[in-house]
Write a structure and sequence with these properties.
Layout (H helix, E strand, L loop, with lengths): L8 E3 L6 E8 L3 H8 L5 H4 L5 E6 L9 E8 L1 E13 L3 E5 L5 E10 L2 E9 L5 H9 L2 H21 L2
Antiparallel strand pairs: 1-2, 2-8, 3-4, 4-5, 5-6, 6-7, 7-8
Length: 160
Amino acid sequence: MTENKVRAEILETGNPKIKSARIIIHAKSSLIFSILNNPKRHKEIDGSATITANVSGPDELVLGSKFGMKMHLGVTYRIRNTVVEYKKNELIAWKHLGQWRWRYELVDIGNGSTQVTETFDGSYAPGIAQIWLNIRKAYPWTQLAVAKTLVRLKETAEAK
C-alpha cells in the first residue's frame, strides 16, 4: 500500500534568488493568517527546522512589528525580524538584517479553502549577504524549506 504524501507545488519564478511554492489549504484565510501573524507559532510550521524558539514579539503581527527568534543553522543565533508587508488575511512578509524576505500570500478560492503562496526573496540582500547565501547554498535548500513549511502550515490549519 502506498501513502499519498501531501506536497506543495514548487513555482518557477524566473529569478534564481526568488524561491516560491504554493498549496491549497482546506481552511479559511483568516485561520491560516492567524497562524502566520503569530510569531509564537512559527516554530510549529517551520519547514527548515531552524527555529528553536520565539524570544520576543507580539502575539499578533502588523506592519512594522518586530519579533525575535532563536535559530540554529550550524550554530545557534538570534535574529530580529520586521514585518514589511501586511494586509490582514491576505498578505504578510518580514525581513531581518540580511534584508531577504519571507512572504505569504493568501487567496480565498471558495468552499472554505485558501491558496497559500510562500516566497523567499533573496533579491533584497546586499552584496555581502548574497555571498553568504551562495556559500551556504541557501537558494536550493530554501526552495525545499519553503515547500515543507507550506505542508506543515496545511497540516496545522486543517487540524483545527
